[in-house]
């Protein structure tokens, strides 16, 4: 459980903040006292979410960015930096899913998944890490998935992108450890988000049957782990992958 205001004075950047896990992470960071730059390509929904979390619009700032466009990513980072200073906490949460069999995946779809899930995470982290390194403190949390650790039909591009993110986490962690910057991965299994609710009751029952604890995760459970990894007590944790999967993968 995060202490009240343990992140006061910190500036966080969360990608994919309009809904689901990203919205829960933005809420939890806000609850812990951080200012949150909330990035999403869905401008309307992102604005509504930011207003719900912070009706005054003081500590949650919605920013419309398409992570597939690296120039836009750079511009958005500079815009935020000029107004609020460097980012202390980065949560790479946005992702594109692609539930398709091997035979159905096109080169363009493969690239779209990697553009957001891997390329944007790499270049955004590198940009933010310049400031974190200079300031001698930083926290990066990457949202991967059980799909990057375990095989499942229709998971080729998405699973490979999440495995790549886990590998990137370790390299960033190794290079940034001497500068007070930690980099960790969270690997959730199914989480109760709008995306997952769309699958229908039957598929839902099938999924929960595969989880030893007998249910899927609440977004808030994952968000609280992200806040812990972003906080002052997590300075000795880096390069780690946190499984949060109800026992679906025990190792
Ligand atoms: N929901 C789950 O069961 C689950 C399980 C394991 C891992 N995850 C991971 O957690 C993260 C969040 O999942 P979710 O279920 O909340 O997803 P979601 O699809 O509900 O939300 C993703 C958000 O990212 C935004 N986004 C997508 N492409 C973007 C782009 N190009 N630029 C900017 N924003 C973009 C979307 O607009 C959306 O608001 C993802 O990384 C996902 O892979 C989710």
Short note summarizing the structure:
The protein is built from eight helices and seven strands. It has helices at residues 20-31, 43-53, 70-84, 107-135, 156-176, 194-197, 201-209, 219-230, and strands at 11-15, 35-40, 60-64, 89-92, 138-143, 181-188, 241-244. Strands 3-2-1-4-5-6-7 form a seven-stranded parallel sheet, with helices on both faces.
Low-confidence stretches: none
* Integer tally of domains: 1
User: Main sheet, how many strands, which sense, barrel?
Assistant: 7 strands, parallel
Q: Kindly state the number of beta strands.
A: 7
Q: List bound small molecules.
A: nicotinamide-adenine-dinucleotide
Q: How does CATH name the architecture?
A: 3-Layer(aba) Sandwich
Per the principal axes of the C-alpha atoms, what is the gross shape?
Answer: globular
Helix content class: 40-55%
Strand content: 15-25%
Strand order of the largest sheet: 3-2-1-4-5-6-7
In whole angstroms, the N-to-C terminal distance is 25 Å
Count of DSSP-assigned helices: 8
Query: pLDDT average, as an integer?
Result: 96
H-E order: EHEHEHEHEHEHHHE
- The CATH class label is Alpha Beta
Describe this structure in words.
With 251 residues, this protein is α/β, with parallel strands linked by helices. It has a single domain (11-241), classed as 3-Layer(aba) Sandwich (Rossmann fold). It is built from eight helices and seven strands. The protein has helices spanning 20-31, 43-53, 70-84, 107-135, 156-176, 194-197, 201-209, 219-230; strands at residues 11-15, 35-40, 60-64, 89-92, 138-143, 181-188, 241-244. The protein has a seven-stranded parallel beta sheet, sandwiched between helices. Helix 4 packs parallel to helix 5. The chain is globular. 44% of the residues are buried. The mean pLDDT is 96. Bound molecules: nicotinamide-adenine-dinucleotide (NAD).
């Amino acid at each position: 459980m995060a202490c009240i205001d343990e992140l006061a004075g910190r500036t966080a950047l969360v990608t994919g903040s309009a809904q689901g896990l990203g919205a829960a992470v933005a809420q939890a960071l806000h609850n812990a006292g951080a200012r949150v730059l909330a990035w999403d390509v869905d401008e309307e929904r992102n604005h509504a979410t930011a207003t719900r979390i912070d009706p005054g619009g003081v500590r949650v700032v919605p920013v419309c960015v398409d992570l597939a466009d690296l120039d836009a990513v750079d511009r958005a980072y500079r815009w935020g930096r000029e107004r609020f200073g460097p980012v202390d906490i980065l949560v790479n949460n946005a992702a594109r899913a692609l539930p398709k069999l091997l035979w159905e995946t096109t080169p363009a779809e493969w690239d779209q998944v990697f553009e957001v899930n891997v390329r944007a995470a790499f270049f955004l982290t590198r940009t933010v890490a310049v400031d974190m390194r200079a300031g001698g403190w930083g926290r990066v949390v990457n949202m991967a998935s059980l799909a990057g650790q375990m095989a499942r039909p229709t998971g080729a591009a998405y699973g490979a992108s999440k495995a790549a993110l886990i590998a990137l986490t370790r390299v960033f962690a190794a290079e940034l450890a001497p500068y007070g910057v930690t980099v960790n991965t969270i690997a959730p299994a199914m989480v109760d988000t709008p995306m997952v609710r769309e699958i229908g009751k039957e598929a839902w029952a099938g999924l929960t049957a595969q989880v030893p604890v007998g249910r899927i995760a609440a977004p808030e459970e994952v968000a609280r782990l992200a806040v812990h990894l972003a906080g002052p007590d997590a300075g000795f944790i880096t390069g780690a992958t946190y499984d949060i999967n109800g026992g679906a993968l025990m190792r």
